Amino acid sequence: MENIRFLFFQEIVEIYLAILMLIYIQYKIKKGDQIKEEIKAIVNLTCEEYFSSVIKQTDATSFKLQKAISYLTFKGIDIDHIVLSAQNESFSKIRLFDYDRVVQQKLGIKDQFKITNINIINNFQEIEVLVKNNSKKEFNDLLVRITYIKEFFEKEVLNEKVEKCLPEEELLFITPVIKNTNNYLFSIIEEHSNRTIFSNKIDLEVIKSRPY
Predict the structure, then answer these.
(1) pTM (global) more than 0.85
(2) Helix ranges, the chain (H)
């Protein structure tokens, strides 16, 4: 009888300890998630402040400017006021997000290219981008890139060369959808000068919410 009582008591103690351990583990997971979100917020704020300061530096390298403007653009942060107040010659070296295009937009000058349609196809596995040469000019040797940000680094998902693009010609590009990634940057670069002549952000959340 005593053995039965002891075994029963031991079983109760083990169950109680298991419950306490589960509560402790749940607390640790919750605390870990909280710390993770706090760190993420700190990193985002630090990156935003750092990259904003890089844009304003008169001695910043072209590479640093590219990364700074690319990051802020992907995050949907308005950089026009930073760009236009920087007033430095180093912006002539920017490739990822062209300063000339910012000025053109301010003056109401038409882009040389425009995205006429974007669709998510093949059961949300691919992005279909239709781009038009919005000018009367023929372009040769263009590089078309689609990039995205992963863990604060720029990744390339599409890189195609266009030998020739006739005036008002439309070009179709298809690229895979990256898991858990909604924001992409579509860019057209002149190969000989490495100058970005067109860039446009693609937001899949906006596309998914469109009425059909």
Answers:
(1) no
(2) 2-56, 62-74, 80-86, 99-107, 204-208
